[in-house]
Amino acid sequence: MFCMMILVISMIAHTSLNVLVRRAKEQIAERKKAQREYETFMNLGSASSTKRKLAFIAAAAATPTDGGDEGDSADGSEIPTLESSSSSSKGEDDPWKRPRFVNKLAQIIYVVAFVLFQSTFWFVALTAYFTPPETFLDTPLF
Questions:
Q1: Which of 49, 58, 62, 86 could be stapled to 44 by a disulfide with Cβ–Cβ 3.0 to 4.6 Å?
Q2: Are 27 and 95 in contact (CB under 8 A)?
Q3: DSSP of 101-120, one letter per residue?
Q4: Which helix (DSSP H) or strand (DSSP E) does residue 16 occupy?
């Protein structure tokens, strides 16, 4: 019974973690793709793209940052990165936050289930072992 319970708990935890880790990896890949697209856009060398660059820099400067001076100049001397203007530097949008939580929860549930089963098993086993034989012999079977 205990093995089956641990097997079910492990399968549920593993499946949940697999889904959460896959989602976190997809979020990270999307962020890296957006960062590459941003850097490609900012590295365009043609004169016609200067207006777009300045508009993007002004928009990035208008968004609140976490207290840094990044993106304050609209002349293009200081180009903000996608990371500096996003909330991921604050830790609010960490894609690994939920998988870490579920992993820690699964570890705690596993330990609690193990200790609960072991304590119940040994309590019943030792109670039966130390019970005098007369208790079992005096009670009728039917």
A1: 49
A2: yes
A3: HHHHHHHHHHHHHHHHHHHH
A4: helix 2-42
Helix (H, G, I), strand (E, B) or coil at 85: helix
Tokens matching residue 65: 């940052």
C-alpha dist (Å) from residue 128 to 119, 135, 142 = 14, 10, 20
Q: Return left, alpha or beta for 107; rule: phi > 0 is left, psi -120 to 50 is alpha, else beta.
A: alpha
Residuewise pLDDT in 10s, the chain (142 residues): 677 877 888 888 888 888 888 888 898 888 888 888 887 777 765 545 666 666 667 666 666 554 444 444 444 444 444 444 444 444 567 888 888 888 888 889 888 988 998 999 999 999 999 988 887 777 776 6
Residue type, 39: E
